[in-house]
Amino acid sequence: MDIIQVDDKQFSIYLKSPQIEAAVDNIAQQINVDLKGKNPLFLVVLNGAFIFASDLLKKITIPCEISFVKLSSYVGTKSTSIIRELIGLDEVVSGRTIVIVEDIIDTGLTMGATIDKMKKLEAKDVRIATLLFKPNAFQLNYKIDYIGINIPNDFIVGYGLDYNGYGRNYPEIYKILNNE
């Protein structure tokens, strides 16, 4: 499908499955080399990163653990400056290598707050893996260790990303048409 309807908005195809899979493969290969012997804890940010994390972690060949947090900063098509923690972290991160797995980093505010929390909990090393990165929207100054694809500042859905809770289930990524 080249055009889809999600709730009250239309979206056009932006990234097809082979492009997404290649980006996931590349990130996994880098992590497998960089973190060999470190037994990282992958911290997956829900809801959006669940599909990316599933595909990524199937390709991770080093010993690791996986946990989840649920954070929210979006209302409709806009990111707010308010980050809500809806499900928290149960694992001890002190002294551990943490890889925060995110579907997309745009303003960077949610990830910045998560990094700060990991530092307060005395994580030894905090790495960031994101499938998508919007450099033109990024407002903070921290290193993103693993980036799958740089994209423009368009609103997108599919492959875990949503609009008002819908559209996560598409295997491709679509960008909004005529964003108001």
Q: Could you walk me through the main structural features you see in this protein, from its secondary elements to its overall organization?
A:
It is built from three helices and ten strands. It has 180 residues and is of the alpha/beta class. It has a single domain, classed as Rossmann fold (3-Layer(aba) Sandwich). The strands form two sheets. A six-stranded mixed sheet has the order 5-4-3-6-7-8. The radius of gyration is 16 Å and the shape is globular.
CATH-defined topology: Rossmann fold
**Count of the separate structural domains:** 1
CATH A-level architecture: 3-Layer(aba) Sandwich
For the biggest β-sheet, the strand order reads 5-4-3-6-7-8
Which percent band covers the strand fraction? 35-45%
How does the major sheet shape up? 6 strands, mixed
What gross morphology would you assign? globular
Q: What Rg do the Cα atoms give?
A: 16 Å
Given as residue ranges, the uncertain stretches (5+ residues, pLDDT < 50) are none
Determine the structural class based on helices, strands and strand pairing: alpha/beta
Order of helices and strands: EEHEHEEEHEEEE
Q: What portion of residues is helical?
A: 10-25%
What is the total tally of β strands? 10
Number of helical segments with 4 or more residues: 3
CATH C-level class = Alpha Beta
